Amino acid sequence: MQVALAEKDRQEQAAARGRPVRGALTHQPVRDGDCALCHLPHASDSAHLMANPSVIDACGACHDWSKHSNHPMGPKATDSRNRNLTIDCLSCHRSHGTGYRYLMPFPTSTDLCVQCHKRFTR
User: What is the residue range of 21's domain?
Assistant: First the structure.
């Protein structure tokens, strides 16, 4: 347990310097080299060669987001940072990995949430 926490701490420190590293904070399929779990390597009608055109459905094949999030997602949830986009899993998480826990692009959930919810900025 201590080794895993030390690895996460090391990676978060590396990410703070702008260099996320592969390891404990890398998405499992990426760590395993199993790109085809999410991508079609030779052709796809979806952006980024995704196997499933819906990001929510693609992530939902392995993750039950309703167990850990009550944030609205889908076609009716508009991203306040870009009104042409809707909220999906990738609005808050980086699918390949980051230097932060939960594959977030920021060190804390507060840092992430205030990107859209400006009124909660401290």
Answer: 8-120
Domain count, the chain: 1
In a domain, 63, yes or no: yes
Using CA of residue 62, residue 67, residue 71, residue 75, what is the dihedral sign?
Answer: positive
The residue count of the chain comes to 122
Q: Is residue 60 part of a domain?
A: yes
Q: Is 1 inside any structural domain?
A: no
pTM: 0.74
Q: Which residue(s) pair with 50 in the sheet?
A: 39
How many angstroms separate the CA atoms of 39 and 47, rounded?
10
Q: Which long-range contacts (CB under 8 A, 24 or more apart) does 83-91 make?
A: 88/54, 88/55, 88/56, 88/59, 89/55, 89/56, 89/59, 89/63, 89/65, 90/55
Other beta carbons within 10 Å of 88: 20
User: Residue 11: what pLDDT?
Assistant: 64
